[in-house]
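Request: Show me your protein:
***
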Amino acid sequence: MMIRLSSGIAANPRLQLNPFFNPQKPSSLHAQIVPLRRKNFSKLRDGDAFDAAAYESERLSLDAAAMETMAETARKEIESGQESDPKAWKWIIRKKMWDLMEARNYAMSPRPVHHRIPNFVGAPAAAAKLAELEAFRMANVVKVNPDSPQKQIRFLTLSGEKKLLTPQPRLRTGFFSVLESDFLKPETIREACTSVGVAKYGRAIGLDEKIKVDLIVIGSVAVNPQTGARLGKGEGFAELEYGILRYMGAIDDSTPVVTTIHDCQLVDDIPLEKLAIHDVPVDIICTPTRVIFTNTPIPKPQGIYWDKLSPEKLQQIRILRELKRRLEKETGRKLPTGPSEKLPPTADRKRR
């Protein structure tokens, strides 16, 4: 059963969903974490001891601050209404899905799931479905997002003797890290699937890395199984990562994009005409109970759409600034910058 969220009522009509429900405000979480002085953990010198506790404390602090910013952005855009803010509809669907998962106890730690790629009951079962796919079995290099519900997929990738490509959290310290089971002890593979483990055991790569990605796994908040239209948590990192990999020649239109979600995250009201040109559609959906091939008609992004990228986002991500400087030098012309806002404006989609 798919859920229609735009009406404000879940599949169970007796369950009224409040789009502003949040049992723990991000600001209160943020207040519990003492911000640390920024340290570039990706550039530790040989012989330096990796301080896992300091890394995790800094990550949690920065993540809490980002969640607080997202919560404020969502509140303003929802309150502005869909007529005055074309991005409000995405936040309405996200908030109602987060509320639904919390209310029905489909959510798993870390909770609350608001402003996250939600961890869900049955995530390992969904990962097992993904592992049965021919696209996964035949893959040598698998790109997997760093979120909690995809942790088992990262483990299956490494334990299956494949290369794992995973982004550094919010692209703050760099771009991607590569992990290979050949360079890991069997007892460290589980740890290597965590954010601390990626920082500890991963090899950071740059824009010049020669790599071919055979399969992309991304997390989602809601997905339409009929079209492959997907909503993430609202920061746009999956789209930015996809765009940079396109520039590197690591992926193309034929590279499968797969997501794992709870069955309740299947929705039927993500309008194609309102999607942004950079939104990444999914080819395959794995839930704990089924596998869905979407045959998506949505064109995949061809790179970074600089005219949609805000100055704030550009300033936040070093690898994007490096890529922009490189392209401007190669082309001899200055690339555009998008409007000053958290998320880029919507653009019309054309069906294939």
Q: What stands out?
A: Confidence is low (pLDDT under 50) at residues 7-47, 342-352. DSSP finds eleven helices and ten strands in the chain. Residues 306-340 form one domain.
